[in-house]
Amino acid sequence: MKKFTWFIFSALFMVTVFGCDKNDEQINQKTGEFAYFTFGHFYGECGGEACVEIYRLDAAQLQEDTTDVYPNSSTPYDGSFIVLPQDKFELVKEIIEYFPEELYGETNNVLGIPDGGDWGGIYVEINYINDEARSGFWLLDQNSYNMPDVYNAFVARINEKIILINQ
């Protein structure tokens, strides 16, 4: 009986020790992994469905928000997304490569005066698994005169992708 008890104890000990290490290792491997990128434009003095166009891109698909709610600066966009056809994904999948690293260092998540003169704003959000330093959301001005130059090409690229998606 002592051998059987010792065997059970040893087996439980090994499962616990090695099981925990494996789980911790799996969690650590996922830290910092890209989850999704949300982007779009918004116009306040506007009528119709095209006034707020928000999309979510991950490694495999492009989704479109169906709620079309004007984004705010206090919380990330909380939409309801549906998957778009794969050809739309192919048109925009490289947009993440143009994400300006400088955004990570911004102390404010509102840059310029988005939609301040009815010229609209851009919403961007990037999310990494367990990496808050590289995850965040920003509202960007579409008026290039109100923005640091480093972001203007990115804003233009987002607008180009929105046009491509809607063709």
Q: Can you give a write-up of this model?
A:
- The chain is built from 3 helices and 7 strands.
- The chain is α+β, with helices and mostly antiparallel strands.
- It starts with a helix and ends with a helix.
- Mean pLDDT is 84; it is low at 4-29.
Q: Report low-confidence residues grouped into runs of 5 or more.
A: 4-29
**Helix count, per DSSP?**
3
In the sheet with the most strands, the strands line up as: 4-3-2-1-6-7-5
- Give a quick account of the main beta sheet: strands, pairing sense, barrel closure: 7 strands, mixed
What sequence of helices (H) and strands (E) makes up the elements? HEEEEHEEEH
Strand coverage percent: 15-25%
* Count of distinct strands: 7
Q: What's the arrangement of secondary structure elements?
A:
Blueprint lengths: L1 H29 L3 E9 L9 E6 L4 E4 L15 E3 L2 H7 L17 E2 L9 E8 L7 E6 L7 H17 L2
Parallel strand pairs: 5-7
Antiparallel strand pairs: 1-2, 1-6, 2-3, 3-4, 6-7
